[in-house]
Design goal:
Elements (H helix, E strand, L loop, with lengths): L16 E2 L16 E4 L7 H9 L4 E4 L3 H7 L9 E4 L9 H9 L2 H8 L3 H16 L1 H13 L4 E4 L6 H13 L3 H9 L22 H11 L3 H15 L2 H8 L4 H11 L2
Parallel strand pairs: 2-5, 3-4, 3-5
Antiparallel strand pairs: 1-2
Helix pairs in contact: 4-9, 5-9, 5-10, 6-12, 7-8, 8-10, 10-11
Amino acid sequence: MTQQIQEPELTGVRNFRDVGGLPTSDGRRVTTGRLFRSGHLAHATETDAEFLTSLGLHTIFDFRNGADHALEGPDVELPGVRNVNIPLSDPADGREFWRLVRDGDLDQLRSILGDGKAAARMANSYRGIIRTRTAEHSRVVHALAEDSVPALLHCAAGKDRAGLSVAVTLLALGVEREAIVTDYLESNAPHRRYRVHRSSASAEARSPEVMELLAPLFDARAEYLTAAFDTIDEVWGGVDHYLAEGLGLQHETLDRLRDRLLV
């Protein structure tokens, strides 16, 4: 396996990692130092920014929407790096739901999250993004094939929207699904996890039961990514048709993408 970029101790950026080293079905691997993923960069420290600058990034893809930007702030700007915002969710979708996640009391959280509702919501969200955001994913993969690497892909937590965009890119590269899931699950490491926003700092607002109810929203679970893969199979009949018909990727584009990102 090729050597990955040594993961730094970033202070203000969660869930950063190099996707390099993942194996493809034809025996190649994703090149290190070319494709990265993380949570948002709004709180990056000066030292964090220096490290990110040292990666020689061409483009940062930010999949957050306006509500995320209002909550967390814009990304820090890095010299010579292009910032591209491609929202993969509508701020209006689930606005009341996420308000209750931040502000709701225990009874409200039980109502919207209990009895498997939270996990089902996440799986359905993954399915919906795959079905309805083909234009956005096509734009990302075409950009990576043309001129946008090295690239960093991120959303808020670096788990869901970025996780799906990374997964789509890796499928286009021919990476095995099992390897994609393994990388995705790395987002569960304690130092990577998104810090849950709750409006109250009281002990009750973060009681064990509250945190258990919230957990499915902030976990990386294999079943979520499997739901996305199943949607590709159900709607398009498999990855090849998804890439060709869903994303409009020509063979020449896939060849360029693989030349840029595989070794």
